[in-house]
Amino acid sequence: MPVETTHLGICPAVDPLDSTSHILDPNIVGAEHYDVAHGVQKIFQDYKSLQDIIAILGMDELSEEDRLTVACARKIQRFLSQPFQVAEVFTGHLGKLVPLKETIKGFKSILGGEYDALPEQAFYMVGPTEEVVEKAEKLAEEHS
């Protein structure tokens, strides 16, 4: 996925399925962080298992539940793009520092379907989820 992710312009190109850490333990990071991280990994695993079906039959042949899984995975993939201060020159996006609790809250909200109605473009190169909502509103204004 990192090459595919890089082609999408998503930086850093991290694959949550291949990126593991012994520190990701509920006794170290806490139960919520652990559960959310595993939820993200599960969504990506489910998305990966749907890739062949999508390639052969297209999105239209997926069940509603599978379409929601794909949409959630793509939003999370874009939400993983991070506007680092050191990368401002390369990305053209102002660097941001998002506290860990806000990051966990954001992923938990996406996994919980709170932002299902927002376009995946709103999740790209933003900080906390409040910025996702703001970006979605701007995108809606541009398209109206």
UniProtKB/TrEMBL annotation:
Protein name per the record: H(+)-transporting two-sector ATPase
One Pfam family here: ATP-synt_VA_C
Occurrences of domain ATP synthase A/B type C-terminal (ranges): 27-106
Gene Ontology biological process: proton motive force-driven mitochondrial ATP synthesis
GO MF, one annotated term: ATP binding
GO CC terms, sorted: mitochondrion; proton-transporting ATP synthase complex
Keyword Disulfide bond carried by entry: no
Keywords, sorted A to Z: ATP synthesis, ATP-binding, CF(1), Ion transport, Membrane, Nucleotide-binding, Translocase, Transport
